[in-house]
Amino acid sequence: MQVIYGGTFDPVHHGHLRLAVELKEQLGVATIRLVPAYVPPHRDEPGATPEQRLRLLELAIAGEPGLVLDDREVRREGASYTTDTLRQLRNAMGSDEPLAMVVGTDAFAAFDRWRDWDQIPELAHIVVVERPGDPLDPEGVPARLLAERRVEHPSELRHTPAGRALILAPPLLDISATGIRDRIAGDRSPRYLFPDAVWDEIRRLGLYGCPPGRR
Ligand code: ATP
C-alpha cells in the first residue's frame, strides 16, 4: 500500500514528522510519501520558495528510510490538486495496489469543495486524522462520505485498492509552521520545534525574515 501525506511544509516541523512516523506504524506500511504542495512564492514577503521547502524536507528526513519525499506537485507547478496527484500515482502504480491519502479533519471539513473531490474515492482510500478543535459537521457531505465508507481497522484498507475511509487519532504535537515563522520573524528561538538541520539551513539561506548568520 502507498500512502501520501501532503501539506505546505513551510517549514516542515516535528508535528509533521511525528505524525508521519505514527501513520507509518499504525497503517503498517514501509514508507509514507510526503508531498509538498506547489505554492508560488509571494513577491514581497520573506518566505521560502517551493525548492527551498523541498530542501528543508529533504534535510529533515535524511537517514529515515520510512519517510520519502515526493516532489511531483512542486515539479508540476500551478495549483496543486490532490486529485491530479492521486491520478498520477494511480497511473504509475496500476489499478490493484491500495493507495491512501492522509488528511486532517481541518482540511477534510471542506473536502466537498476540492477540485474533482467525488473522484477521489475511486482513486484512493482516505485516512482522516482527528485534530482537536476541528470536529466535522455531522450533517455535512464529508461526514456522510466518511460514514458510508468507514472501516474500523487499518488492515481493511488492504482489501480493496481504493474507496474506504479510516479515522485515526494518533498523538499530535502542538506545533505549527505559522508559530515557527512568527518566532523567527520576532527574533525568538524556534529551536526544538524542528530538526536542527532545518534551522541551520533556514539561517544559512536567511529564510522567513531570518538575518543570515543569526544564532
Ligand atoms: P501553517 O501553520 O502554515 O498552516 P501547518 O504547520 O499547519 O502550517 P501544513 O503544511 O499546513 O502545516 O500541514 C500539512 C498537514 O500536516 C496538514 O494535513 C495538517 O493538518 C498537518 N499538521 C500540521 N501541523 C501538525 C501537527 N502539529 N501535528 C500533526 N499534523 C499536523
Description:
This protein is α/β, with parallel strands linked by helices and 215 residues long. It has a single domain (2-205), classed as Rossmann fold. It is built from 9 helices and 7 strands; from the N terminus they run βαβαβααβααβαββαα. A 7-stranded parallel β-sheet has the order 3-2-1-4-5-7-6, with helices on both faces. β2 (32-36), α2 and β3 form a beta-alpha-beta unit. α2 (50-61) packs antiparallel against α9 (196-205). The protein starts with a strand and ends in a 10-residue tail after the last helix. Bound molecules: adenosine-5'-triphosphate. Adenosine-5'-triphosphate binds next to α1, β4, α5 and α8.
Order of helices and strands: EHEHEHHEHHEHEEHH
Poorly predicted runs: none
* Main structural class: alpha/beta
Could you name the CATH topology? Rossmann fold
Radius of gyration: 18 Å
Measured by DSSP, the beta-strand proportion falls in 5-15%
Small molecules bound in the structure, each named once? adenosine-5'-triphosphate
Rounded mean pLDDT score: 94
What is the number of domains? Answer: 1
